[in-house]
Design goal:
Layout lengths: L5 H6 L2 E6 L5 H16 L6 E3 L7 E9 L6 H5 L3 E9 L1 E2 L11 E2 L7 H10 L2 E5 L8 E2 L2 E2 H6 L9 E14 L2 E8 L5 H11 L4 E11 L2 E2 L6 H9 L2
Parallel strand pairs: 3-12
Antiparallel strand pairs: 1-3, 2-3, 4-11, 4-12, 5-6, 7-10, 8-9, 10-11, 12-13
Length: 233
């Protein structure tokens, strides 16, 4: 596909973006839409993303433009891969660093063998409860918006599949995991569940999405590179 032709984006382009830290997936979509409208001199263009990535996560976001937005559901249904940094011995309401630590727990009794056994227990088909701080819809409102206001709500658990859970690094109380999973899996919830299985607590301190289906983040471009390429049209 010729990405140096303006009509490409109107006909339909699939962009592989390496999302920066603190940006939402919607921020990425809005920036691309605004840049395309300015550079192409048009008033309207369809732009959407195929799968939300948390603000405190980095990595691959697939963005579709024009007629390619019809492919979004296809990408969303693909399995995902992540590298997750987890801290044991504490929890936060959001299961990551968006919120402050609310409880601490002993972790000194945890060994590498216990972690591996816990990972085996959390592999395969799992009934997972989504985080309250998530994009789940509750009565037409985003769960995270209600959670940030301190409102109580009830989310439904969902079946997910963890096809690979690998320990990459261990320096207690911190560890790094490689996770391959089905769509709809919350890695923050997986961190929470790991803490529970270990009779402790756990939360995410870092997350990077490395793959969506066959598409890898090492083939992605930054937003800055995308905008610079647009200026060459």
């Amino acid at each position: 596909m010729e990405y140096n032709r303006p009509e490409t984006y109107l006909d339909g382009a699939v962009l592989y973006i390496d999302k920066p830290l603190t940006w939402t997936s919607f921020d990425v979509v809005n920036k691309i839409r605004k840049s395309l409208k300015q550079q192409l001199g048009i008033k309207k263009i369809k732009v959407g993303h195929a799968g939300t990535l948390d603000p405190l996560a980095t990595g691959l976001v697939i963005v579709c433009t024009g007629k390619a937005t019809k492919q979004i559901m296809q990408f969303q249904d693909m399995d995902k891969a992540y590298v997750a940094q987890v801290r044991l011995g504490a929890t936060t309401p959001s299961f990551d660093q968006e919120t402050e630590v609310d409880h601490t727990y002993p972790w000194e009794q945890i060994t590498s063998d216990k972690i591996i056994q816990a990972m085996l227990k959390l592999s395969g088909d799992q009934e997972q409860m989504p985080p309250l701080f998530s994009a789940k819809s509750v009565d037409g409102k985003r769960a995270y918006a209600m959670a940030r206001k301190g409102k109580q709500m009830e989310l439904k658990s969902q079946m997910v599949h963890i096809s690979r859970l690998e320990l990459l690094s261990l320096e207690l109380p911190d560890l790094i995991l490689n996770v391959e999973c089905s769509k709809g899996t919350y890695i923050r919830a997986l961190a929470r569940d790991l803490g529970l299985v270990l009779d402790s607590g756990a939360y995410l301190t870092g997350l990077r999405r490395t793959r969506i289906g066959p598409y890898h983040v090492d083939k992605a471009i930054t937003l800055e590179n995308f905008i610079e390429n647009l200026k060459l049209l």
